[in-house]
C-alpha cells in the first residue's frame, strides 16, 4: 500500500535528512485518526507539484507529527492540460463531480453558472459552496496520492467561459444530441500539448444561446457515447477518455 499523503504549507529549503513537522488539522489526522507510528512511511506535499517522502520519527501530543525526509519527488505540470468547466449540479453532486474528476486526474475545474442550473451561487452561500469544492479537491488529491492538486477557480459566467474556450488548443462542449452536429469525442483530433477545455452542461442541458456563444469562441459539440450521463459524472468520463487518448495514462 502506498504511503499516506499530508499537505504542508511549504517545502522550501528541505533536503535529505531534514526534519519536518506536520501540525494543525493535518497533524491531528495523522496522529489521532491514522495513529501513525515511528518507522512508518509518509509523503508530504505542497499541492503544487512538490513532494517529500520520509519516515515518522515520533508523534507529539495529539496533533503534531515529526518526520525525517529523504526523497523529494516532483510532479511536473502535465501536458496537454485538461480543464473541465462544470455546470453547478444540485445538492452535493457538485462535490461528487469534483472528487471523481480529481481522482481521475483533471488539472483544473471551473464552476459555471449556466442558464439552466437549478443551483445558483450567490452571496455567502456561493462562497461556502466554492470553499466546499476546493476542500473536496484537496482531500481527493491527497487520497489519490497526487502531488499537484487541481485548481478550482471562482465561479464563471457564460461570457467568461467563452473567453476561456477561445484561448484553448482544443475546446469541446459535451452534448448528447446529434441534431446539434455533435461528433464522438473518442475520435476527435487532440493536441499533444497546450490546453484542452471541456464544458459540461447542467441537467437541463446547454441552451442554444450558450452553444452559439461557445461555438463563436471556437468550441465544437462532442458526445461521449450512446448513454446520457449526468452532469456530475460526464466530466469524469470525458477526462478519463482524454487521459487515455493523449498518452497521459500510458
Sum up the overall morphology in one term.
elongated
- Gyration radius over CA: 20 Å
- Beta-strand portion reads 15-25%
What spatial order of strands do you see in the largest sheet? Answer: 8-7-6-11-9-12-10
SS field, number of helical segments: 6
Give the beta-strand count.
12
Main location: cytoplasm
Function: Specifically methylates the N3 position of the uracil ring of uridine 1498 (m3U1498) in 16S rRNA. Acts on the fully assembled 30S ribosomal subunit.
Family: Belongs to the RNA methyltransferase RsmE family.
Subcellular location: Cytoplasm
Quick structural overview:
It contains 6 helices and 12 strands. The chain has 250 residues and is of the alpha/beta class. The model has no long low-confidence stretch (mean pLDDT 94).
Protein architecture, described:
The protein has 250 residues and is of the alpha/beta class. It contains six helices and twelve strands. The chain has helices at 24-33, 93-104, 123-143, 158-167, 208-216, 231-245, and strands spanning 5-7, 19-22, 41-45, 51-60, 64-71, 81-87, 108-112, 151-152, 170-174, 183-184, 195-200, 220-223. The strands form two sheets. Strands 8-7-6-11-9-12-10 form a seven-stranded parallel beta sheet, with helices on both faces. Strands 1-3-4-5-2 form a five-stranded mixed beta sheet, covered by helices on one side. A hairpin with a 3-residue loop joins strand 4 and strand 5 (64-71). The longest helix is centred in the middle third of the chain and has 21 residues, at 123-143. The chain is elongated. 35% of the residues are buried. The model has no long low-confidence stretch (mean pLDDT 94).
Amino acid at each position: 500500500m502506498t504511503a499516506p499523503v499530508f499537505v504542508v504549507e511549504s517545502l522550501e529549503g528541505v533536503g535529505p535528512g531534514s526534519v519536518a513537522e506536520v501540525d494543525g488539522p493535518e497533524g491531528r489526522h495523522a496522529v489521532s485518526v491514522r495513529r501513525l507510528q515511528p518507522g512508518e512511511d509518509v509523503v508530504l506535499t505542497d499541492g503544487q507539484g512538490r513532494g517529500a517522502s520520509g519516515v515518522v520519527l515520533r508523534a507529539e501530543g495529539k496533533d503534531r507529527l515529526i518526520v525525517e525526509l529523504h526523497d523529494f519527488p516532483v510532479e511536473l505540470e502535465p501536458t496537454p492540460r485538461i480543464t473541465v468547466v462544470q455546470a453547478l449540479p444540485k445538492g452535493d453532486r457538485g462535490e461528487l463531480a469534483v472528487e471523481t474528476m480529481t481522482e481521475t486526474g483533471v488539472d483544473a475545474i471551473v464552476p459555471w453558472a449556466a442558464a439552466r442550473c437549478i443551483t445558483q451561487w450567490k452571496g455567502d452561500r456561493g462562497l461556502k459552496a466554492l470553499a466546499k469544492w476546493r476542500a473536496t479537491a484537496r482531500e481527493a488529491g491527497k487520497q489519490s496520492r497526487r502531488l499537484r492538486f487541481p485548481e478550482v477557480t471562482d465561479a464563471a459566467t457564460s461570457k467568461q467561459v467563452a473567453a476561456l474556450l477561445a484561448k484553448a488548443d482544443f475546446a469541446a462542449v459535451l452534448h448528447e444530441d446529434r441534431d446539434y452536429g455533435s461528433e464522438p469525442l473518442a475520435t476527435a483530433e487532440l493536441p499533444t500539448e497546450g490546453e484542452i477545455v471541456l464544458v459540461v452542461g447542467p441537467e437541463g442541458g446547454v441552451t442554444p444561446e450558450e452553444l452559439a456563444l461557445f461555438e463563436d469562441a471556437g468550441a465544437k459539440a462532442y458526445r461521449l457515447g450512446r448513454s446520457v450521463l449526468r452532469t456530475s459524472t460526464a466530466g469524469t468520463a470525458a477526462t478519463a477518455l482524454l487521459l487515455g487518448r493523449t498518452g497521459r495514462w500510458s
